[in-house]
Design a protein that fits this description.
Number of strands: 10
Strand order of the largest sheet: 3-4-5-6
Helix content: 25-40%
Number of helices: 6
Mean pLDDT: 75
Order of helices and strands: EHEEHEHHEHEHEEEE
Radius of gyration: 19 Å
CATH class of the largest domain: Alpha Beta
Length: 169
């Protein structure tokens, strides 16, 4: 399967060549934000203050994520505070929304109007879940998903991040 490499900011020509199911590597400058900040960015759009804050949305990408010392990972794009900002952000120039989760039909249709796309990044948990063959709650079932579980896994991928006094961090 071919992996397409594209660089942000995108031209309409690049975007028009993308199809559902394409595997894409995105390079360049992208924006990162999620439910707490995106409504504030929409306010800046409405106030006309993006440019004075050196924010240039035309042809750009917004990754629905928080940025923490531990790294970045996609958050659910279909949260009201995120999906609800997509029409304004897209009209203002965002051409790729990057996150996870299914979006409403109206949102997908809006993307077509602006030659914009939505791409998903599978969170690590999705990959790991496919490797779990059985699970059993062994303690504190009253805690629901935070209970203590036993997992049977197959080819569970991992990376050793610290050993023998060395760390990748």
């Amino acid at each position: 399967m071919e992996i397409k490499t594209i660089t942000a900011p995108f031209t309409d020509e690049v975007l028009s060549q993308l199809k559902v199911g394409d595997i894409v590597n995105v390079s360049g400058i992208i924006y990162a934000g999620r439910d707490a900040v995106l409504p504030k960015i929409v306010e800046m759009i409405d106030e006309g203050t993006l440019e004075q804050n050196d924010i240039h949305l035309q042809g750009s990408v917004i990754f629905h994520t928080a940025v923490s010392p531990a790294g970045v990972g996609p958050t659910s794009s279909n949260k009201l505070e995120i999906e609800g900002t997509m029409p304004q952000l897209t009209a203002a120039g965002i051409r790729m929304h990057l996150g996870k989760g299914a979006l409403k039909k109206e949102t997908i249709e809006m993307f077509d109007k602006y030659n914009a796309v939505y791409a998903v990044i599978a969170p690590v948990t999705a990959l790991l879940n496919s490797k779990v063959k059985a699970k059993r709650c062994v303690a504190h079932p009253e805690l629901g998903m935070e209970a203590f579980y036993e997992l049977q896994v197959e080819e569970f991928p991992c990376i050793i991040a610290a050993a023998h006094g060395q760390s990748m961090f």
